[in-house]
Specification:
With 275 residues, the chain is α/β, with parallel strands linked by helices. It contains 10 helices and 8 strands. The chain has helices spanning 47-51, 79-93, 105-116, 136-165, 168-173, 175-187, 190-201, 230-239, 255-258, 260-273; strands spanning 8-14, 17-24, 31-36, 57-62, 98-103, 121-127, 217-222, 243-248. An 8-stranded mixed β-sheet has the order 1-2-4-3-5-6-7-8, with helices on both faces. The longest helix is centred in the middle third of the chain and has 30 residues, at 136-165. The protein is globular and about 50 Å long. It starts with 7 loop residues before the first strand and ends with a helix. The model has no long low-confidence stretch (mean pLDDT 95).
């Protein structure tokens, strides 16, 4: 049975930034899940998960530095900076035994945060993400995207990006979700989009540390994802000791929005197994 408590919109000062987040607070809390969005989205992409959280689960969806309503602070972005922000946020709220749920860039942040403070977490959901650093070809694509954003602006960038992250089925049927992502992209400042593209291009490879993850992990991949390959999902599955992979049909890079019922089912089953 789900208890539909209202979502609370909150802000908290952490270091040099103000972090905006959504909070779903149950009467009794057994587990805390922190949802971390992908690039260049915001916390609102997790609405279907927060609204349907099972009893006893506290849900928090954050805006990463420079995204949504979180401020940019010093303006120098890296996956390491984002992970440090997350760790400081958890400390500020006095949380422990946190389960991270990160999609795409959110997965990079989750993996780096675990590298930095492995004892802080008790579970991890890695959706449409991977542990490998960008190849030179991928780096150049990001550099080209920066030039395109600077030349043509956010609107053109958003149109192209949406085509890449949704499956063909979703583009034809999930109009509200497509509009949510398109508008999320266009709300970001051009400076933040470009700074984050540089952060993604410069991220470190976390494959070697996957074997140090001591708790069960859930790996989720949209079966029609054009950005994360089956081989990248298998790399996570092969290197994390206690991991299971769920592939979601007719979904691209954002299965939590494209097939929320299936995504939630996999997530709730995973959380129920965690001690």
């Amino acid at each position: 049975m789900n208890y539909h408590f209202p979502l609370q919109r909150k802000k908290i000062r952490v270091g040099d930034i103000s972090i905006s987040y959504l909070l779903k607070e149950p009467i009794r809390c057994d587990k805390t899940v922190i949802f971390i969005h992908g690039f260049p989205f915001n916390k609102n992409m997790w609405k279907y998960q927060l609204e349907e959280l099972p009893e006893g689960i506290r849900g928090i969806a954050i805006d990463v530095r420079g995204h949504g309503r979180s401020t940019s602070g010093h303006g120098y972005f890296s996956i390491d900076v984002f992970a440090q922000d997350l760790i400081a946020f958890i400390a500020k709220l006095g949380l422990d035994g946190v389960v991270l749920c990160g999609i795409s860039m959110g997965g990079y942040i989750a993996l780096r945060a675990h590298q930095l403070t492995p004892l802080l977490f008790k579970g991890m959901v890695l959706a449409d993400t991977n542990a490998q650093a960008d190849s030179n070809e991928a780096k150049i694509k990001r550099f080209d995207s920066i030039q395109s954003v600077l030349k043509y602006g956010r609107r053109t960038f958003a149109i192209g990006f949406v085509r890449n992250v949704f499956s063909e089925t979703s583009l034809q049927t999930r109009f509200e979700e497509v509009d949510l992502i398109r508008s999320s992209i266009r709300r970001n400042e051009i400076r933040s989009i470009c700074a984050t593209l540089l952060a993604l291009a410069s991220r470190t490879d976390t494959t070697e540390s996957l074997s140090t993850i001591s708790f069960p992990c859930l790996i989720v991949r949209g079966k029609e994802d054009k950005l994360m390959t089956p081989a990248q999902a298998d790399n996570l599955l092969d290197n994390i000791k206690y991991a299971e992979l769920v592939e979601i049909e007719q979904s691209g890079h954002l299965p939590n929005l494209e097939a929320p019922a299936l995504f939630n089912q996999a997530l709730w089953q995973y959380l129920a197994k965690l001690t």
